[in-house]
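User: Quick sanity check before I run a bigger batch. Here is a single chain. Can you write out its predicted 3D structure?
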Amino acid sequence: MRFFALILILAATAAPAETLRIRAGQLIDPERATVTTDQLIVMTDGKIASIAPWRPTDRADLDWSARWVLPGLIDLHTHVADGYAETSDPAEPLKHSAADTALKGAEAARIMLHSGFTTIRDVGVYRGLGDVALRNAIAAHEVEGPRMIVAGGYITIPGGGGAVTGAPKGTVIGPEFRIGEVRGPAEARAAVDRLIHGGADFIKLIATGAVLAVGSDAGKLELTPAEMTAACDEAKRLGTYCIAHAHGAEGIKAAIRAGAWTIEHASLIDDEGLALAKARHVWLDMDIFDGDWIEEVGTRDHWTPEYLKKNRDTTDLQRAGFAKAVRLGVPLTFGTDAGVYPHGLGARQFAYMVRFGMTPIQAIAAATSEAAIALRMAGKVGSLSPGAAADLVATDRDPLADVAALRCIADVVQAGRLVHRDDASARCDR
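Assistant: Done. Predicted structure follows.
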């Protein structure tokens, strides 16, 4: 038996490496802020092996010589695994079975990948640990989707911004929907243990109220500083980190002081919060596209007035805060809250980032090399360095001249495999 096992091991090590060669016309490296022309990218076993000038004697499996090529995109704020996140009904998660939600999440994951996002951080589900199952299915090649880093659920107060709200009186909300509800520091630590041991990669705190939650004030602190500190300390002890959903200025600062690694939304951030984020190198992950979508679709579809008012109260202030953060050099990443709007439209945010102060290369870096640093995966994703995951996207137009070109992804390679081929009817979000 041991001899047979040895034969299998030797056969595996002797198997020829899978190699893909791509000829890139214009290669954009956001990590180094450079563009090189006519390059040969060689990928072996899912990793970038080498990049060198193309020679007439070189062979290419994919000819992207007429295209602009860059690392696969990263969205640090998605809700793919929730499946039914795109709705105005806060009690929507209760209306679908775990199986239905999983199938819907798998569909969303496929759409995200084909739109150019090869890695995502999925920042919370209402039905606890559903995202862990989807992440594992993608990693096992059972489902097509981006590489996923997942939160497992939300650390939230009962009835807070991370809880299922708005259900009819008397509705029984099962324990799977309350996996992260806490009352006090001890429960916060226990919830972190529960999520991480359940397979979560990091911890998501709901520091303040939410825009799209009934009876939740986006500007007010919900978790206490002591609860957030306990959760972040426990996450660190377990070898990971916490991030914080925080709209209000005081909640943002409390979360940073508690040890949050990134701040999500940061809609009402003040000058003190900006200075604190810069001093402690805490990334702001600001979804500045969403406000227009919620206003347009919410008004058209008669969303609850509470949602629309909170959206109007935060949208312009969030964008002003983003512009100020760019000027001050505060760390910024690319996060869209995918699921509030239909999956696959996330690249619309690039134009907003440029409109509010970034250069196109800065916006692209926020969704590649800078996002990778925030994920603690620098040089592993969002990079063209040898040894990095062979994730690439190609466009027919120059995104440095018009960053909206990223809304029209022609081809996608993930881990050295072509997963999306040029399809004019599907590659643009229209």
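Confidence is low (pLDDT under 50) at residues 1-16.

User: Great, the batch can go ahead then.
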